[in-house]
Design brief:
Length: 386
């Protein structure tokens, strides 16, 4: 069956489903690397970012999450905008270009403390505050906001599009089985696959460069991973807005219901990266977080990734605080050990910047083009603004 796979195009749905029974990770990775190299050649990219946890409050109860906290466990429901701006100015001085806004799902629907804090600041919702903070970051620091705000309506996406260069939401899994009682997404209404896929589709309708991906090792099967990737591909084929796919490995954390759950081994991660490449083809950007796999980064490259995602020289990964970012010099060395070169990119990938009139809101175009020095714009394939 593997001999039927072309390195020039994504595999068919039938072949993708059949791959669930293929255990030869090495063979899959060999094909995935040929496919990746046909488009990305010898470059592995990353985005130099600052991580802004605008609020740790969330209405969901994921059984593996330590990011979400209750009001009693935090000093303030929301990060003050002055602190956001100070952090972004410091990050900009270090060469960061992406301001990653991450937050829980609409906490005001669950917590009185969130509603009171928003009212005191003069906002009716968390997303209104996100828009305000992102707009100030964009205008006052020049950094490009990337917003992970959870599930949204079309109107909310339109509202945030004018103050962000890109957005994202992790599908994690398209398996409704994981939402059943006793499973990791039980009690989390925003993790219902259809709801997340709807947000993804709405982002496509509104022409938003978008990030999504899957979380592996939380109880799903290999077939369910493939079905999740195919569900993302279906949305992307309709709108063309998915600019990167993250393959993230579950890490067990203390003080969660899944603290003793087994983590996926390296072979499972490599298998899934390779399969993601085969499903999405040569051009898609496939990413694996480097801080979640210390010591084995060349193996991830040899499985078919072309991107490390956001890496911060200033702030920790607040979603995985136990996993420090690799130093950029070390990341470059490990990338070189895999026979590739490390290149910094924007939060918006080159193909979307080239067609900026379609993919970017008028309010963000100037900031995006300013963040790409002319030499690097030409080198990376971004629009040449000379």
């Amino acid at each position: 069956m593997l001999e039927q796979i072309s390195t020039q195009s994504p595999v068919s749905r039938d072949i993708a489903i059949a791959i669930a029974e293929v255990d030869d990770t090495s063979a899959l990775a060999d094909i995935a690397c040929q496919m990746r190299d046909a488009s990305h050649h010898n470059v592995i990219t990353y985005s130099k970012k600052v991580f802004i946890p605008l609020t740790h409050l969330c209405r969901d109860v994921c059984h593996y999450c330590t990011f979400a906290k209750t009001p009693k466990r935090i000093v303030s429901p929301y990060m003050p905008v002055d602190e956001v701006l100070e952090l972004c100015r410091e990050a900009a001085a270090l060469g960061c270009q992406e301001a990653l806004f991450t937050l829980g799902e609409k906490p005001e629907l669950r917590y009185k403390a969130a509603r009171e804090a928003l009212a005191e600041m003069g906002f009716a919702s968390t997303l209104e505050y996100v828009a305000y903070a992102a707009e100030r970051v964009l205008k006052e620091t020049g950094m490009l906001p990337h917003i992970n705000a959870g599930n949204m309506t079309a109107e909310e996406i339109i509202f945030l599009r004018r103050v962000s260069a890109s957005m994202g939401i992790m599908l994690e899994s398209a398996s409704s089985r994981l939402c059943e009682k006793g499973m990791p997404h039980y009690g989390s209404p925003d993790k219902i696959p259809e709801v997340r896929l709807e947000t993804m589709a709405l982002a496509g309708e509104q022409r938003v460069p978008f990030t999504t991906g899957i979380l592996i090792g939380i109880g799903e099967t290999r077939l369910e991973r493939i079905e999740s990737l195919l569900a993302i591909r279906d949305v992307h084929e309709k709108y063309g807005h998915i600019q990167e796919i993250i393959v993230q490995n579950f890490r067990a954390k203390p003080d969660t219901q899944m603290h003793s759950a087994p983590e996926p081994d390296l072979n499972e991660l490599l298998w899934t990266i390779a399969v993601a490449r085969l499903i999405f083809g040569p051009e898609m950007n496939i990413q694996a977080p480097p801080n979640l796999s210390p010591g084995v980064l060349p193996q991830l490259v040899h499985a078919g990734i072309d991107d490390w995602g956001g890496v911060s020289p200033l702030t920790p990964d607040h979603v995985n605080p136990e996993a420090p970012w690799p130093h950029l010099d070390n990341l470059a060395r490990e990338t070189e050990a895999a026979g590739k070169f490390l290149e910094q990119r924007l939060t918006v990938y080159p193909s979307y910047v080239k067609n900026y009139k379609y993919w970017l809101a008028d309010e963000t175009i100037s900031a995006v083009l300013r963040q790409g020095p002319r030499k690097r714009i030409r080198k990376k394939g971004y629009l040449d603004t000379r």
